[in-house]
Fold:
Amino acid sequence: MTVTTEPALRTRRPPEPAARTRRRSLRPTLVGWSFILPNFLGFALLTLVPMVFGLALSFMDWSPWGDPEWVGFENFERMLRNSTFWIALWNTTYYAAGHIPLTMAVSLGLALLLNRTLAGLGFFRTAFFLPYVTSLVAVAVVWNMLFNPTSGPVNQFLQFAGVTDPPGWTSSTAWAMPAVIVASVWRDMGYYMVLFLAGLQTIPTELYEAARVDGANAWQRFRNITLPGLRPTTFFVLIMCTVASFKVFDLIVVMTDGGPGRATKVLSQLIYEEGIREGRFGLASAISLVLFLLVAGFTVIQFLLQRRQEDR
Amino acid sequence: MKRYPSALAAIAAASAVALAGCSSPASETADPSAPVTLTVSAWNLDKTPEFNALFEAFEAAHPNVTIQPVEILADDYPEKVATMLAGGDTTDVLTMKNVIDYARYANRGQLLDLTDFVAELPTDKIAGLEPFDIDGKYAAVPYRQDFWVLYYNKALFDAAGLPHPDHLTWAQYGELAKKLTSGTTPDGQQVYGTYHHIWRSVVQAIAAAQTGGDQLSGDYGFMKDQYSLALDLQNAGAALDFGTAKTQKVNYRSMFETGQTAMMPMGTWYIAGIKAAIEGGTSSVQWGMAPMPQISAGGETATFGSPTAFAVNENAKNVEMAKEFIRFATGEEGAKVLAGIGVVPAYSSDAVTAAFTALPGDELSKTTFTENKKVVLEMPVSEVTSDIDTILNEEHELIMAGQKSIDDGIRDAGERVKNEVL
Structure:
């Protein structure tokens, strides 16, 4: 990480002719650019250039063995005709619609619970954060075992609680996505809990005391102090969670591999299958362009809503 | 002006280096005794003894060669190799795990053309070469030719007082499986009458082989009876249900070796695996082999099979040595090594048959092996094989997990194949 230092105090100088002023103001700009350049070069070469190239690739037919061939919108037509694309698009939105609100609610709840002095607070915060750093494969394997329709603890508990026909979870087309959502909420809640905790601690406690003195109850304090005070944090968490949800790949592949059938196949997995497994990089780029527009669209909407709220 | 000489010098230096690189001689000049490191892709080395056996035998015959295996987990093998090749990997010899993957790589030009090389081999003795013929060109040579049989646990049959499964029909197979589902293993695991692994070939390929159906056609009504049988056994509890097998990633080897299943249709590659497990002391299963059950009694045994082959990477560094390895592995010396550890080689000769000692001593196992049978290729090779394979696999999962009726699954598979692929 580069450490920026304050520029040295300038002593007053006599006014200068115009040309020299222009050259002098160029220098700080150059200094600024030279600080940014290493990071920007990395971003440009590894992210920006591949993104632009991917955009161009979506209009080409270029397999790892042949020469690139410009095919115009053929990849997009093929993509729209493919039933798996529409299923994957629906699954991705389904997953995001389930994952985002649940994760935010759970992590906010956890942050509120753990934002006080408790015995063993450090232990609890660590315990809730641990799933985020656990090996993904271990998480998927264990959750699959938990969700085992015949001998898993989840169904055994449900049957004990009186449910006569417990769901098939990852072996059922209707319940596979909810199962994956539950596992991923469990996994991500710790990370966003930490972000919310940081946000909660920026709210001055005097506001709470003043509210208590004025006779506000817990719900009113939450609604009128906590939530507005958390707005920047909530906005950030929402953006991060949205982007991560639409891009989900690893947990799905390890837990259900898109199955049963295509019940949990998401867009990233389709991109991987079309691109790497089948070698149709043009088609894969077209699908990733759709995913990019989806995520960008949601993010822009969220930014616009945030700006409108701030202007109020 | 003052800056130009240093720029010119830099350009001159760069071009000198480039030109020097261009003019160096080709790396494969005729020095046969120069030390060579040959990279070969393989899977699960400890469970698949054929690789180490072949590597050691080859290194003994060619002391200047060291073989460096690129070990990949068997379940991930096709996708890992596809990713490697897409990234320009330079592994010299690529093992083709099945013909479907071979078709994929060959159609993409990722494998070196071996047509001339194959012309020099004793092709009349090598079984299973035809699937590797794409438009008259070959890019791989089979070293192993497997077919599917019915493995059974003699101890469980004897304990239940039932005769060994000699040339069964599917109806008889179903009844036996239900009778044999009883009791537990010494570890307390439930014993099933039979185990159907999650691969779609277990149902679809055997149906295609025995009814003459074409898996590339888009008409899949011929699979209906086989699915009915498989689902019937699963619902009756005689076979572990598909949903559990898939989500818990059940391993077919441990199912059979720990005595959790009395019967199991599987390929002949498993002979070497059982042999290694018994010799290594991890299993004490008393196993036997019987022909795959047939639709009706009395006719020729029809089963499906698949050759495993070696191919040379288009980007290989040691092309001549790679070809030499393939010549060894697919010829008589390699075949004898393979037969010795219980793998069915593609190359056949009397010497090779004499070396095959891994079978259990009983008559039924021997007959299964030596009788005349029709071995149909597991999946026909074509440009659309890979896409159809994906569709058939997805519908197979839905049918076996009980998420779709057999008729709906078959109908959807056919529609998808016809609309999206053909």
In short: Chain B touches chain A through 32 residues (CB under 8 Å). Confidence is low (pLDDT under 50) at residues 12-29 of chain B. The domain at 36-146+306-362 of chain B is CATH 3.40.190.10 (D-Maltodextrin-Binding Protein; domain 2). DSSP finds 18 helices and eleven strands in chain B.
